[in-house]
Amino acid sequence: MPRYRTQITTDIARDQVFSDLAHFDRAAEWDPGVAEGTMLTPEPVGRGSRFALRAKFLGRTIPLEYEIVDFEAGARVVLRAETPFVRSIDTITFASVPVDSPTTDVTYDARLEPRRLARLATPLLALAFGRIGDRAAAGLRERLCSNVVR
């Protein structure tokens, strides 16, 4: 199963970073692999919130609908998207380092679970997923380390 994990430390307060990244419709602002995003459910963001993203993958633009399946305000958000060929599970965790400081560790852990015939392409998917993850991590690092959050 292809997986990508990165950790970024920022001087932005945990609650502020969490609020920004839990709004997954904003992923296009930091992930060059996302063409656009829209929030499909009303505010506030929480378990059950859904987001429509148009992702660029292997030369194509693919519509994905992400849903928050686990939500711990200020600490953790888990998003899931499914197509007939793959399931994507993105887990973003937030921790103040040290506790009660304005410094935040953000860990982004993305897993891609190929389904059906796509399982045969797992090695190719893993390679592509690594490259996509590197670009997304660079965009996220730039956003968090230049203090550009909403």
Give the key terms.
150 residues, alpha+beta, Alpha-D-Glucose-1,6-Bisphosphate, Chain A, domain 4, globular
Would you summarize the structure shown here?
This protein is an alpha+beta fold and 150 residues long.
Task: Report what the structure shows.
The protein has one domain: START domain (Alpha-D-Glucose-1,6-Bisphosphate, Chain A, domain 4, 2-Layer Sandwich), CATH 3.30.530. The radius of gyration is 15 Å and the shape is globular. With 150 residues, it is α+β, with helices and mostly antiparallel strands. The chain has two helices and seven strands. The chain has a seven-stranded antiparallel β-sheet with strand order 1-7-6-5-4-3-2, with helices on one face. The chain is 22% helix and 43% strand.
> Can you count the beta strands?
7
Query: Main beta sheet, described?
Result: 7 strands, antiparallel
Instruction: Outline the low-pLDDT stretches.
Output: none
Strand content: 35-45%
CATH superfamily: START domain
Termini distance?
Answer: 33 Å
The structural domain count equals 1
Provide the spatial order of strands within the biggest beta sheet. 1-7-6-5-4-3-2
Number of helices in the DSSP assignment:
2
Q: If you consult CATH, what is the topology? A: Alpha-D-Glucose-1,6-Bisphosphate, Chain A, domain 4
SSE run: EHEEEEEEH
Average of the residue pLDDT scores: 88
CATH architecture field: 2-Layer Sandwich
Top CATH class: Alpha Beta
